Amino acid sequence: MRIATMIGDISRSLFRKPVTRQYPFEKSATPKALRGRVEWDAAKCTGCNLCVRDCPAMALDLHILDRKNKQFVMRYHLDRCVFCAQCEESCRFDAIHLSDKKWELAALTQDPFDIFYGEENNVRTVVEKVLKGNAGQDAGKDSGAKAQAK
Amino acid sequence: MHTSEHREQFIVPIGPQHPALKEPGHFEFTVDGETVTAASARLGYAHRGIEKACEQRTWVQNLYLFERVCGICSHIHATCYAAAVEKLAGVEAPPRAQAIREVVAELERIHSHLLWLGVAAHEAGFDTLFMYTWRDRETVMDLLEVITGNRVNYSANILGGVKNDITPEQSAEVLKGLDFLEKRIQHYLHVVQNDEFFLQRTRGIGVTTKEMAERLGIVGPTARASGVARDVRVDSPYIAYPQFPVNMMVEESGDLEARTVIRIKELTESCRVIRQILENMPEGEIETKMPRRIKEGEVLMRVEAPRGELWYFVKSNGGEKPERVHVRTPTIPNMASVVALAVGHQLADIPMILAGIDPCFSCQDRAVIVNYAKGGHDHWTWEDLRRYGIEYYRKQRRV
Fold first, then answer.
1. How many angstroms separate the CA of residue A7 from the nearest CA in chain B?
2. Which of A39, B62, B213, B261 holds its CA 20 to 30 A away from the CA of B392?
3. Does an H or E element contain B35, and which?
4. What is the pLDDT of residues B282-311, one digit of tens each?
């Protein structure tokens, strides 16, 4: 019986460089299947609301301004998202997908977690509506919800 | 000085917060010197109201809720739920989807057993083994990320199939990872059977006889280590197990060594079956259409989670949301063995005996019925639970 079966492992590890990645300077390659931030394409959306209904985290709000002329604004609550990609599965028009590149999502304030996708004018209208709706509740907190128009 | 005719009882309370494991549970061990003479367990500190919450969500949303019953075996929960709902709806997922589900399930088993081996080694004071197993666990987590896109909560399933196909490149990457893991697994098997210090903590400790395992209804590797041939993958094959069967591992001695050895042998078996599936992957679609409303009925589905038999009871009233879902995780039957085995052992062996069943405390906590002292009982609705949670934390923070 060998007294120390791990001697080999230990001696190899002693003379090896640390395996820790120097993260901000050296990034790991991400697999294609990685599920990062939700990206939404207004041109393909039909406003069927299936993604909103299927989202288990209530992270998506679709504001329909004019269905005929495809005037939609998608409000994406990044802080609620669980990155399950069910919205991508539910969408029959390929309008929504999870990015495999945008996965560095940390931020110092709440604002970057409230994302609006859509045309700039429409986003402005929706943001005003949202702020009005929130007035009195947590107006102070949400007043900084500047639209991040795509 | 104090003398007494009867020997005084001394009770060692452990938990709810305790250094042995990372989850809450309260145990009381009555000791005579160092020897435990009586034991009791109180559970329920990590109850989250998941079953009640699911009644307010749609069939699709619940898939992700049940995935979060357990952080380690998330895929098997989602698979069991998805398979149950598919059975209820009369829909069958395509063979390729079933095969992919099995690949992820077996990779998850490798991940779970390696994690357990690390925890068991840590409890035994063998931290070198703990660090090596957890380093190798990174490999399997990376493989899971390659296939599904996430290292935990893989979300590989959808109702009626799986999300992502396995491409030949991904398959090659998994096979390469398995080569490394198989070598390591053989090494660990050698270590746990030959390292004298580790054997002092495992050999002949916590012996569960076959009769005892049958009587307590123990499941999973814990039961198979005691000679009980019980494995849902073999007894009642589900998903792709009829096409790609696994061999059941059984050990006879029933002590902690047997529980360690059986889990490591299961790792080898998992590697073999993953290899077999990837080399003979059925062709075809990976998803079928599911109805949004599931027809009325009820179904019981059972699967073999890494810790043992897991079952789901799903009842539908024909709507978009389930009427009732009940989950029984493998820790609850196995917990009985901890209390039964503790008596007669040294207090120092207790953490090892507890870790030996691979407990998952928050998975097992269920009940939502409140019994009143005057009689009668009441159910808590999702709203009640939510309000209670908000009030509780408000009081804690004194706001």
1. 11
2. B62
3. strand B35-42
4. 999 999 999 999 999 999 999 999 999 999
- Tell whether A83 is within 8 A of chain B (Cβ): yes
Please compute the mean of the pLDDT values over residues B250-271 and round it to a whole number. Answer: 94
The minimal CB distance from A82 to the residues B60, B64, B146 is found for B64
Say if the Cβ atoms of B132 and A9 lie within 8 Å: yes
Continuous segment of H or E residues that includes residue B212: helix B210-216
Superfamily name with CATH number, domain B50-329: Cytochrome-c3 Hydrogenase, chain B (1.10.645.10)
pLDDT recorded at residue B44:
82
Average pLDDT of every residue of chain B:
91
Percent of chain B at pLDDT > 70 equals 95
Cβ distance B380 to B368 under 8 Å? Answer: yes
Query: With an 8 Å Cβ cutoff, are B191 and A5 in contact?
Result: yes
Residues on B contacting A at a C-beta cutoff of 8 Å: 57-58, 60-65, 67, 128-129, 132, 145-150, 153, 155, 158, 163-164, 170, 187, 190-191, 194-196
ipTM exceeding the 0.95 mark: no
pLDDT at A145 over 50: no
- Residues B318-333 as b/e (b if ≥16 CB within 10 A, e otherwise) read eeebbeebebbbbbbb
Closest CB to A35 among B58, B61, B149: B149
Q: How far apart are CA B161 and CA B100, in angstroms?
A: 9
Stretch (H or E) spanning A74: strand A71-77
CA distance A121 to chain B (A): 33
Which residues of B fall within a CB distance of 8 Å from A3?
196
> Looking at residues B186-212, what average pLDDT do you find?
92
